[in-house]
Design goal:
The complex is a heterodimer of chains A (173) and B (114). By secondary structure, chain A is mostly helical. Chain A has six helices and no strands. Chain B is built from one helix and nine strands; from the N terminus they run αβββββββββ. Classes of the chains: A mainly alpha (173), B alpha/beta (114).
Chain lengths: 173, 114
């Protein structure tokens, strides 16, 4: 089960992020990737708020909901201001599918197994989103304001990754 | 004896000067309380290190997309400052206070109160 969940994470996040190069990606596609990536983590966070056993994991889930909601609001506001219509693309579709699979997996787990699977996924997810920001989204953004938004949110994703890694270490004790 | 209105005015002015004098002297030695701003943006405090005098006010302004706090455990704690909001603190206690955002603990700042 764990191996399956890990394989899903890898296939959902690594491959599309690696396949979409900075040259190919357009601003409407970036907008879609950003909104989808945030929404996927909001949905997982909402589940963790309800189902997590460890209070620190529960609090992390709450933080993911508030932080990614804040980022998404800023992204949607900017997209509206710029008149960009988010465009579905293989990366955003895979993110969405990966998010749905993750939710399905998590819904079947409880107790410590849920906490561990959620946190493991959060570590992998944030690492992949940071990689996508660095290699695809930030270098690929054509509009300066969109690029600035991505640069501005990056440190929060790094903070989330470190937080999730800290939880991962705590849970493995 | 007749007292001219002119001398009353002069006397009054003298009294005012005498009253104002020491007050101005004190003001020169202890600067009036100032207000400083620390911006929270891109998950960073700017400036990261701020030095103020006791009695000054520090305002943390959240210009980020996400909620932050300014927390020096046991000294001051803003609680959650939502995006677009701010929190004021009158720094009365002298010392050096490292602080963090409790939500994003890698976000660090230092307040020095002289």
């Amino acid at each position: 089960m764990k191996i399956l969940a890990a394989a899903v994470v890898v296939s959902a996040l690594c491959l599309p992020a690696a396949s979409a190069s900075a040259q190919d990606v357009t601003d409407p596609q970036i907008a879609s990737i950003v909104v989808t990536a945030n929404q996927v983590d909001i949905d997982a966070g909402k589940l963790a708020e309800k189902k997590a056993t460890n209070p620190d994991v529960k609090k992390f889930g709450q933080l993911m909901v508030t932080d990614h909601t804040g980022v998404n609001k800023a992204a949607v506001d900017l997209v509206h201001k710029l008149g960009v219509t988010p465009e579905d693309n293989p990366t955003s579709q895979s993110l969405k599918a990966g998010g749905e699979t993750n939710l399905a997996t998590l819904k079947g787990l409880s107790g410590k197994a849920f906490d561990k699977a959620y946190v493991d996924h959060e570590v992998a997810y944030h690492q992949q989103v940071i990689d996508a920001l660095d290699h695809t989204l930030i270098p690929g953004a054509k509009n300066d304001q969109l690029k600035a938004l991505l640069v501005k949110v990056r440190p929060a994703f790094v903070s989330h990754l470190e937080h999730a890694q800290h939880l991962q270490a705590e849970l493995s004790k | 004896m007749r007292v001219s209105s002119r001398s009353i005015v002069l006397s009054a002015a003298t009294v005012l000067l005498v009253l104002a004098g020491p007050g101005r002297g004190v003001a020169a030695r202890v600067p009036a309380p100032a207000t400083y701003t620390v911006t929270m943006d891109s998950s960073r405090f700017e400036p990261a290190v701020l030095t103020v005098h006791a009695g000054d006010t520090v305002v943390w302004v959240n210009k980020d997309f996400i909620t932050h706090t300014a927390t020096a455990k046991g000294h001051f704690d803003s609680g959650k400052i939502a995006e677009g909001h701010s929190w004021s603190y009158v720094a009365r206690t002298k010392g050096t206070f490292p602080y963090i955002c409790t939500l994003h603990p890698d976000m660090k700042g230092t307040l020095r109160v002289q």
